[in-house]
Automatic annotation (TrEMBL):
Record's keyword terms, sorted: ATP-binding, Ligase, Nucleotide-binding
Species per Swiss-Prot/TrEMBL record: Corynebacterium felinum
Function: ATP-dependent carboxylate-amine ligase which exhibits weak glutamate--cysteine ligase activity.
Protein name: Putative glutamate--cysteine ligase 2
Family membership: Belongs to the glutamate--cysteine ligase type 2 family. YbdK subfamily.
Enzyme class of the recorded protein, top EC level: ligase
Coiled-coil ranges (or none): none
One Pfam family named in its UniProt record: GCS2
Single GO MF annotation: ligase activity
């Protein structure tokens, strides 16, 4: 049985994965445990987690009611993590992946289940030099979870295009806006969720995974969107990690509004929209490949539209709800991302200008320090 401790309100929680960089070599540094220990010693109220890689620190908010509240917690944690990293002569890195670091030189953290994942997945598991944003939104009834998840899958390309920030890999330009997306789906429990029609179907599926031993190896299913029953939330894991807190705030606001928008449709007795599985998969690929220039499928009749045009329309549609939820200003930052360009566009432009990734790494580090 899959428990779901439903949330009375559409509460919010955010997890932001950041990595440590040597400012001279611009390479990743596996010293996250030291930084976390330093911060915890001075600020035990800050919630930090060690992640899959020993170079990675995850900033975790408490349960929040609004996006500004979550952003405030993240800013406070970011300031303390930056201070500790600076004492060690290190910088912070926020992006979907690193453009040239060699995965063979980057150890995983000491958590036992991470070592088991590596033992099981071998080559593909070893390559996971990737970082993302996970947004939790509270849901009041488990029977609402899968209809809302299936509707959210329509917006996969919107969320990914806005945050795509991983164009480089192993020293080359991959041609993708989010190479992280392509890498992560290689893990056997990662990628798109099945579009379950009920909580009962989800429970049956998870029973099968337990019987077959899959969960024993991995701890959970790592779908791009999934239920988080312990917290009573839907967890959206689509986004590349961003290099600014403002960009994070924008996509968290969009995610929060979308979940509440679809939840209220259910309140009105309306059926939620969904796309065919093959359209969802195609949209995911198009956003990973083309980012802001993706032409996406927007309905079951296979009508298509430029993703940025569709995003602009959704921002307008959701703005009244955003005012009610206290995240109107943050939602408008989505338009700023479109006008300025996503992380992959900024990194790629510098790579094309200089013929190497160092300037892109430096600029991305500076963005995390200076803001949007």
């Amino acid at each position: 049985m899959q428990e779901f401790f439903a949330s009375e309100k559409p509460t919010l929680g955010v997890e932001w994965e950041l990595a440590l960089i040597d400012p001279d070599t611009r390479d990743l540094v596996p010293r996250a445990a030291e930084v976390v220990d330093m911060v915890r010693a001075k600020h035990p109220d800050i919630h930090l987690e060690l992640e899959f890689l020993a170079n990675t620190i995850e900033l975790v908010t408490p349960v929040c009611d609004t996006v500004p509240e979550a952003v405030e917690h993240l800013q406070y944690a970011l300031d303390q993590v930056r201070e500790a990293a600076s004492e060690l002569g290190l910088k912070l890195w926020g992006s979907g992946s690193h453009p040239f670091s060699d995965f063979r030189t980057q150890p995983t953290s000491s958590k036992g289940r991470y070592k088991e994942i590596i033992a099981r997945t071998q080559y593909w598991g070893n390559q996971m030099l990737i970082w993302g944003i996970h947004t939790h939104v509270g849901v009041k009834d488990k029977e609402r979870v899968w209809p809302i998840i299936n509707a959210l899958l329509i917006h996969y390309p919107h969320l990914l295009a806005l945050t795509a920030s991983s164009p480089g890999w192993d020293g080359i330009d991959t041609g993708y806006a989010s190479n992280r997306t392509m890498l992560y789906q290689q893990l056997p429990t990662a990628g798109l969720p099945y579009q379950f029609e009920s909580w009962q179907q989800w429970e049956s599926y998870m029973d099968d995974q337990a019987i077959s031993g899959v969960i024993n190896h991995t701890g959970s299913m790592h779908f791009d969107i999934r239920p988080a029953g312990k917290w009573g939330t839907i967890e959206v894991r689509i986004c590349d990690a961003t290099s600014t807190l403002e960009e994070l705030a924008a996509v968290v606001a969009l995610t929060h509004c979308l979940v509440v928008y679809y939840d209220r449709m259910l309140d009105r007795g309306e059926q939620l929209p969904c796309l065919q599985d093959w359209h969802v998969a195609e949209n995911k690929w198009r956003a990973a490949r083309y980012g802001m220039d993706a032409i996406i499928i927007v309905d079951r009749d296979t009508n298509e539209r430029l993703v940025t045009d569709d995003v602009r329309e959704w921002v307008e549609r959701l703005s009244p709800l955003a005012k009610e939820l206290g995240c109107f200003d943050e939602l408008q930052l989505v338009l700023k991302i479109i006008d300025r360009g996503a992380g992959y566009q900024r990194q790629r432009a510098l790579f094309e200008q200089h013929g190497e990734w160092f300037p892109a790494v430096d600029a991305t580090i500076a963005e995390l320090e200076e803001g949007f």
